[in-house]
Amino acid sequence: MNSNQTNSTPANGRRYWRSLDELADTPEFKDWLHREFPQGASDELDGSNRRHFLKIMAASFAFAGVATLGGGCRRPEEKLEPFGQQPANYIYGKPDYYATAMPTRTGAVPLIVKSYEGRPIKIEGNVLYPGSNGGTDRYSQASILDLYDVDRAKQFTHEGKTVSRDEALKFLDDLSAKFSANQGEGLSFLAESSTSPSRARLQKIIADKFPKSKWFTYDAIDSGIHQRAATQAFGQSVKPIFHFDKAKVILSLDCDFLGGEDDAHNHIARFAKGRKVENGGMSRLYAVESLFTLTGASADHRLRLDSNSIGDIATAIVTLATDSSAAAPANPNIKWISECAKDLAANHGKVLVVAGQRQPLAVHLIAHEINYALGAIGETITLVPVSETNGPELSQLNQSLKSDASDTFVILGGNPASNLNLRWTPEQKPKNVIRLGYYEDETAEMSDWNFPATHYLESWGDAATSDGTVVPIQPLIQPLFGGLTELEFIARLAGELQTNPHEIVRTTFAGSEENWKKFLFNGFNENSAPQFVSGKIDYQTVNNAIITGVNVRGASSTNNLEVIFYRDAKMDDGRYANNGWMQELPDPITKLTWDNAVLASRKTARELGVQNGDLVEITLNGRSVTGPIWTQPGMADYSLGLALGYGREKAGRVGTGVGFNAYKIFSGKYIETGATIKKTGATHVLATTQSHWSMEGRPAVREANLGEYEKHKDFAKAMQGEEPPVVKSLYPNPLDEAKKTALHQWGMAIDLTSCVGCGTCVLACQSENNIPIVGKDQVLRGREMHWMNIHRYYTSDPKKKNNPSIFDFNADQNKSDTDQQFAEWIDDVQAVNQPMLCQHCEAAPCENVCPVAATVHDQEGLNVMAYNRCIGTRYCSNNCPYKVRRFNYLDFNKRPLADLKGPMYPTAIFGSKTDGKLDILRWWKNPNSGMRDEEEWDLIKMAKNPDVTVRMRGVMEKCTYCTQRIEQAKIVQKVKAGASDDVRLTEAAGNIPKTACQQACPAQAIVFGDVSDPNSTVSKLKDLERNYSVLGNLLTKPRTTYLARIRNPNPLMPDYREWPYSFEEYEQHNGNPFENEPAAKGNS
Amino acid sequence: LPGAPAGDFEKSVIFPKWTNQIPFLIPIGLALVGGAVAAGVTVYCTPKNTRVGYQPVQPVPFSHAIHAGQLGVDCRYCHSTVEKSWFSNIPAASTCMNCHSQVLKDDPRLALVRESAATGKPIPWVQVHIVPDYVYFNHSVHVARGFSCVECHGRVDQMDEVRHAKSLSMSFCLDCHRDPAAHIRPPDKVTDLGWDWSTNLTVAAQMQYTNGKKFVHDWKVESLQSCSACHR
What we know:
- The complex is a heterodimer of chains A (about 1100) and B (about 230).
- Chain A has about 1100 residues and is of the alpha/beta class.
- In chain A, the strands form 13 sheets. Chain A has a seven-stranded mixed β-sheet. A six-stranded mixed β-barrel of chain A has the order 20-25-22-24-23-26. Chain A has a four-stranded parallel β-sheet with strand order 12-11-10-13.
- In chain A, helix 7 packs across helix 12, helix 10 crosses helix 11 and helix 10 runs parallel beside helix 12.
- Chain B has helices at about 20-45, 45-50, 65-70, 75-80, 95-100, 110-120, 140-145, 150-155, 170-180, 200-220, and one strand at about 125.
- Chain B is extended, with a radius of gyration of 28 Å.
- In chain B, about 40% of the residues lie in helices and about 0% in strands.
- Chain B starts with about 20 loop residues before the first helix and ends in a 14-residue tail after the last helix.
- The model of chain B has no long low-confidence stretch (mean pLDDT about 90).
- In chain B, helix 5 (about 95-100) crosses helix 6 (about 110-120).
- The longest helix of chain B is centred in the first third of the chain and has 23 residues, at about 20-45.
- Classes of the chains: A alpha/beta (about 1100), B mainly alpha (about 230).
- At the A-B interface, strand 1 and helix 32 of A face helix 5, helix 6, strand 1 and helix 7 of B.
- Strand 1 of chain A pairs antiparallel with strand 1 of chain B, so a sheet runs across the interface.
């Protein structure tokens, strides 16, 4: 990569794409365009003059006809423009891969990024990185779209006016000189936390050079508590690393380690590794939580409890687990607690207790006390030494800014105006507010100087992963808008001679050139992680903290509600608000898109007299915010869940005004009590992708408890249901013949025991396959385009359900979700996740009904779509039992970004209104108004994968098993084979392609491969007894099969049941699947 | 009609006798017209006619006949990525200058090439062969498995200005994919455009038949006809 990224000038409305469209802007082309039509045809039409319009149209058609006959349909002349000088090692059409990393608050995600002709297009995990399985998280998958965001900060501005880059840089140099003279008096910084060694080095230079300056560090969502707690508990600067794979019993105290916590993708990987049934032994997860989280959905035992009472549970558990003779404290859940504590105590050295980021320090200390007492330190938790961060407390920030001495305030990244509620009156405002930011957002509005920041894919930098291994951040592309990296900005302000970020990182690295190259090639610095240290708990400190820290409040009520502020699975702290992929990704639990909501339990909603979509005003400590109610199954009563990061006032075209801003009542504490709710009377439409919560006894997801699974290994197949008698087919399936000569037969197996439902695969698929975002109104119509989605079902005790018959409209199964929200069964639920994508049925129902044979099988078992042949009848979608086909109702790729969040787009030409205007009138006045403008399209198309067709309106599409990757792998092997027969891809040779979802999955739940090879991983998985086909009794013979989910509950627990709820529901509907077996199962 | 002479029916002025044949003539006429339109479209509006023969004037009067034909420069000297990528590249000006910094170094016809090599400004070559965007054709695999350039591009070594020689329509692709044995040759002969098994045409055809079948079998040539082979 070219490191010389500092010399480009800021671009004003610069174009990025060299292609036909650029040609289309040339004077010649415009001239030609205008000659094609008569004078006046391209003038703006006055809607009232219909006669005029018809005249022009008639003339246009006539001219168009003449032009066609006269050669107008000749192919346009296209130019091929080669290089003047051939760059070395460059092959047009071959992607390049570079190792880089995405920095996070407390670590970094090591990545391999695929680049086509200089455009990064796909993010993948770095498999070389020790301990990585190539999985990533949602944020890194979606981050590539931010690079091509139309609303990025593009210019250097001073007091709202664009200034040149040179002017802006000169201003920094002048500042540096000024503060060198007065030792940094009046200079303060506000930066987000970072693990970059280079930034730490520059920060030290700043501190040395400007000793009177102040450096504040902040995170809107603070994950630093794990480090602070460990440091206090063990009396040394350490940070804990949780090894869920080594634990047998895990207890989560309000800790969403699989979802909302930092480093979740590593946690998912390790957790899934500890729960591979076939590898002998399976860990058990206990979760105590108030919100229903991904961790709760994966838990074997879940206790729903308000977040404030969790300290109480922790105290009880520490007493019972460390001292077997201790008397049980009084607690309504004492049976649950004591059995959990016994299980922990019985697994000495193999336990892991984690406290959530939102829980107070005392709960974390208790967790460490249990861990220490039960021998977890050094086994399931390792402690990594970290360097002490010593800066002023964030609480002093306002005071410091308002002091008279305050002169220059530098904001590095972040968005404190939005997520720190940073405000000042004109007289209190620091003289110069300087901001380096990625967006022209709320903070940019209140800053005097704005410097555009670069994306991490445009920057040189470095970072340290959660275990302290140093990883490089390499640019894949020159800064699109000539921004500055954080490192360069600080270096310039520090008056350093070395301001080129590449040089800065190189200096920090300090190794030989050989090692530097290796560092960049591998994407990490081997053995740079610090050694683990042993820890001895400081009981004195811990006990003091516990006594003062655990403050159990009385039970809440509707007049004293608990509010839980949580990190959203999509917006993070609000930084992905303008990312359309993230807005449209269904929340892993609520399945809401394009909104956040006030999550409340059924009981809470009932007592408050509100239902889904009712706008309520929440008042907390004198401040209030208004948002829509969403009844969440499994929520603790009298707790409200508020996702942060929505309701941005100035996020950009996509994100501005989506959802409500919970920061308005947030003051840095993640759990607050004393909130009240008032119904406003208004309602808000929420767009969810899954409106029915229950499977109603159908065996889409099949699950068993470990004990019963040992007895009935074949339970998943027993639940198949009755198959129709197989008669000889009138028309033989052509695939049966084609199969015999094909090189491979592709198939997929998805392990539901490993899948936690995080949604990374959905984004990876979207990125790989150019899947458009459709907007909230289209999601409401069920037109979302995700080829893959994760179905989340809630199951409950069937006795709680009202299930008489399918003809009874009062039965739960016939109720809409608006009525289901008041059903009692949703209080204590189990949740199951199931990734659903095209099943590639061997006897595909979609193929039989296509009138134009646009969807057919290829010889390797893929159900393929020929987009160019599709005429959009949608028969295939209608006939698909899995509902995995997606139709382009509109030209979604061309929908303007600002239209996506709403208002509701009318279908009807007559009657419905958009913004108060009839739709047809809007079209009449401006036929292109529904189209994305050139500027948007120019940038967004750079994110598209050139290996996959971008589909038009009227075309059906669906999962292809990443056919482009399969074909490329086959081509590579065939080129290698040449004049030989070594053309088969084999797992032994390591050349079986990975699908995008498989590659991204941190849990390795998805396995793709050749099912005609009996030794392939996928074949072996399909041979397992818990392998089953969804709707297999339809004889569709799906190539995608699922491995039934196994739960591992403790038989001694009060909430133990022999079989999971879903099985009991199944049994109620369909009878005992084992009744014909000799050893009947004896379930009561 | 009452009162009218009987003979008038046989000799109607308005509808003479031949009009009785109209119901039979109409379908025949329609069939003829329809057939003519269909034939016309097939002949004039399909790639066989619209593409074959396309021969745009290039900005530099480069002659493949001289370079590849007379001088015998291998195709891959300039089109160097053909074995590695889906795309067969147009050489950079620097490739031309490898020879033309010595040969014809001041020739006015090469002014554009010298300028491009010196300034980096690309030469705007006009693209002759192109398949639609939804077709994912891959050069490298065809060349590696013994399919010659000549199959799709014709005798470029005999063309002064490159001319679109084959239709490159979908049926053209399928012709070969349905019968690869008729076209396959040893991979080391793919860039030898004039090569044949024998100078005797009958012998050559026979050898193509026997060797072609053998190659297709021995090398497991798939010659896929499923949609996913080309459309993604």
